[in-house]
Design brief:
By secondary structure, the chain is of the alpha/beta class. GO terms for molecular function: hydrolase activity, hydrolyzing O-glycosyl compounds.
Length: 555
C-alpha cells in the first residue's frame, strides 16, 4: 500500500509475469536485438515488385478550404479553429490550399509526379451539411466527381478516406462518436458514398487514425471535440468506432463488392516501441503492451479475434477493480459483436512517423486514464533526428521493426503505409534536404522489410502532396512535397527538391543498384599482392629516462 498527499490509498498493480512475454512479439525483438548502430545504417539496394502502389496523401480539411462554399455545412474543425487562440497565429482551414477551387492545379502536381495513387478524404459536411442524407448537397458531390474523374483520366488510382476527423458540427451536438447512434448515421453516409463514387473508387478507408480520434479528441481534449475525459470516454468512443467501421465494411460487402470489386480497410496509427532493454523481460512486456494499447486496440479486434488485446483487458480490468469500480472502464463485446467485427479489413493500412523507447513504470491508481493504464513510459529512441514537430523525431530503423511486428502479430497481411513523412519549418521553402534524407532512409527500411524479411508491403503513400493546414500546428510547419505560399491569395504551389527525389524513387520502383554504385564492387585479379607496412620511426622508441629499450615488430 502507498499513500499520496491526497490521502487516497493506492494499491500497486503488478506487471505481467515475465513468462507472459508475447511469443510473436518476442520473435521480432530477438531478431533485431543483435543489430549494431552500424548495421542499422547499412543501405539496401533493390526494388519493390511490379505493381507497387506509390502515392501521396492529403485530407479534406487540410487542403480544400471553401469552408462554407456552395452549401457546405460547418465541421467540428471549423468551429474549433475559428475561435481565436486555439491555433498558432489564429490559423484555420477556411481557405487552406484552396483545393476546392484548384482541382486543375492539384491534378497538374499529381500528373507531374507520376504517382499511381492519390489518397484524399471526403468532407462529410460538404456532402451532407447536417450529417444526414436528407441534407444532400449536390455541389459538394459534383466537386468530388470532378476530382475523381480527373484522377482516373490521368491513370491515378483514388484511395478515398471516408472520415478524416471533420465531423459535421450538427452531429457533435448529439455527442458525436460518444453516441452509439453514430454507427447507423455513419453507415448512411458511407452507403451513399459507395453508391455515388464506387464505380470509380476501388480503395476505401473508413477512418483515419481512430486511436487519435478517441484519445486526442475525447481523452486529452486536444483536438475537436475537445472532450477531456481520459479514463473512460476514449474506450467508449473506440468501441463505437469499431462497430461503425464493421458496419460500413459489411454494407460494402453485401451491397457493392460483387459489382464494384473494391477494397475496404482502416488506417491505424502506430509508432514502433523499442524496449529499453531487450534482456529485461518486463521491459519487453511493456513495449508490447504499448503497441497493443495504441495499434492493437483496433487491429486486434479487426485482424485477429474480434476482441481487444488481452493486455488491454487485463490492465484496464484490474485497475478498474482496484479503483473501486464495479466494471471495467474498457467495454466488452458480445460474441455477436466479435463475429461482426472480426475480419473487417481487406488489407492492413498504417500511418507511422516515429519510434519511441519504452520502459515499464508503475502508474498511480488514483488517476483514471488510458495513458496510465498502460504502465509504460516513452522516451526518444537512439539515433533520433530532430524535426519541426518534437513528438515526431525521425528514426528510420524503427519502420522495419514495426513492419516485421505487424507481419508476426497479424498473420502476414498485405500492408499499405498510408502516411509517412516529416515536418519542416516555415523557413524551408523548396530546399528541403531533411525530407530528402527522410524519404531515402524510411523508404529503404520498408524495402528491407519487403526484400530481406518477406513482409508483404504493397504500397507507400508519402505525406503529403503539398504543405497544408497542419491541425494544431496551423501553418507553422509543412509536410509537403510541394511548397504552398499561404501569404498569397492565389496559393501558388512549387515543387520542392524532395518532389524530384520522390519522382525518381517511384520511377525506379525503389533503389536499384546503378552503374555508378555497382562499379564500387568487384575483385582484384588473381595473384594480387596483399601486404601490410610500417616504418621504424613509427614503431620504435627508446625510453632513455628508464634506460629501457622497446622494439616493436609488425607480425
Amino acid at each position: 500500500m502507498e499513500t499520496y498527499e491526497n490521502k487516497i490509498e493506492i494499491t500497486r498493480l503488478p506487471s505481467l509475469p515475465p513468462s507472459e512475454i508475447p511469443s510473436k512479439s518476442k520473435v521480432v525483438w530477438e531478431k533485431f536485438s543483435p543489430q549494431t548502430k552500424f548495421e542499422r545504417q547499412l543501405y539496401h539496394y533493390g526494388t519493390f515488385p511490379e505493381g507497387f502502389h506509390w502515392g501521396v496523401s492529403s485530407s479534406a480539411y487540410q487542403v480544400e478550404g471553401g469552408w462554407n462554399a456552395d452549401g457546405k455545412g460547418p465541421s467540428v474543425w471549423d468551429t474549433f479553429t475559428q475561435k481565436p487562440g486555439n491555433i498558432p497565429n489564429n490559423d484555420n482551414g477556411d481557405v487552406a490550399c484552396d483545393s476546392y477551387n484548384k482541382i486543375d492545379e492539384d491534378l497538374h502536381m499529381l500528373r507531374a509526379l507520376k504517382v499511381k495513387t492519390y489518397r484524399f478524404s471526403l468532407s462529410w459536411p460538404r456532402i451532407f451539411p447536417n450529417g444526414y442524407k436528407s441534407s444532400l448537397n449536390q455541389k459538394g458531390v459534383d466537386y468530388y466527381n470532378r476530382l475523381i474523374d480527373g484522377l482516373i483520366a490521368n491513370n491515378i488510382t483514388p484511395m478515398v478516406t471516408l472520415y478524416h476527423w471533420d465531423l459535421p458540427q450538427v452531429l457533435q451536438n448529439i455527442n458525436g462518436w460518444d453516441n452509439p447512434e453514430m454507427i447507423n448515421i455513419f453507415n448512411e453516409y458511407c452507403d451513399f458514398c459507395y453508391a455515388t463514387f464506387g464505380d470509380r473508387v476501388k480503395f476505401w478507408i473508413t477512418f483515419n487514425e481512430p486511436q487519435t480520434i478517441a484519445w486526442s479528441g475525447y481523452g486529452l481534449g486536444q483536438i475537436p471535440p475537445n472532450v477531456n475525459q481520459p479514463g473512460d470516454a476514449p474506450y467508449r468512443v473506440a468501441h463505437n468506432l469499431l462497430k461503425a467501421h464493421a458496419q460500413v465494411y459489411h454494407t460494402y460487402d453485401e451491397k457493392y463488392r460483387a459489382s464494384q470489386g473494391g477494397l475496404v480497410s482502416i488506417s491505424l496509427n502506430a509508432e514502433w516501441a523499442e524496449p529499453l532493454d531487450i534482456n529485461v523481460p518486463r521491459e519487453v512486456v511493456a513495449a508490447d503492451r504499448t503497441l497493443q494499447f495504441q495499434l492493437g486496440w483496433f487491429a486486434h479486434p479487426i485482424f485477429k479475434n474480434g476482441d481487444y488485446p488481452d493486455a488491454m483487458k487485463w490492465q484496464v480490468g484490474n485497475k478498474s477493480e482496484l479503483q473501486g469500480l464495479t466494471e471495467s472502464r474498457l467495454p466488452s463485446f458480445t460474441d455477436e459483436d466479435k463475429a461482426f467485427i472480426q475480419g473487417t479489413a481487406d488489407v492492413f493500412c498504417m500511418n507511422t512517423y516515429t519510434t519511441k523507447v519504452v520502459r515499464h513504470v508503475t502508474s498511480r491508481l488514483d488517476i483514471e486514464s488510458y495513458e496510465t493504464d498502460q504502465d509504460a513510459e516513452k522516451d526518444n529512441a537512439d539515433g533520433s533526428i530532430n524535426t519541426a514537430v518534437n513528438e515526431q523525431k525521425a528514426v528510420a530503423w524503427g519502420l522495419r521493426r514495426l513492419l516485421n511486428w505487424l507481419k508476426e502479430e497479424y498473420g502476414d497481411p498485405e500492408i499499405y503505409i498510408t502516411e509517412n513523412g516529416v515536418a519542416t519549418g516555415i523557413d524551408i521553402t523548396v530546399d528541403d534536404t531533411d525530407r530528402i534524407f527522410f524519404l531515402n532512409t524510411y523508404i529503404d527500411e520498408a524495402l528491407k522489410a519487403h526484400n530481406l524479411d518477406g513482409v508483404r508491403v504493397k504500397g507507400y503513400i508519402a505525406s503529403s502532396l503539398m504543405d497544408s493546414f497542419e491541425w494544431l500546428k496551423g501553418y507553422t510547419v509543412g509536410y509537403g512535397l510541394h511548397y504552398v505560399n499561404f501569404k498569397l491569395s492565389s496559393r501558388p504551389r512549387s515543387p520542392k527538391r524532395s518532389a524530384h527525389l520522390y519522382f525518381d524513387i517511384m520511377k525506379n520502383n525503389g533503389f536499384p543498384l546503378t552503374e555508378d554504385v555497382e562499379m564500387l564492387y568487384g575483385h582484384f585479379p588473381e595473384g594480387f599482392m596483399w601486404s601490410t607496412a610500417s616504418a621504424s620511426y613509427q614503431v620504435q622508441s627508446i625510453l632513455t629516462n628508464e634506460t629501457e629499450f622497446c622494439l616493436s615488430y609488425l607480425l
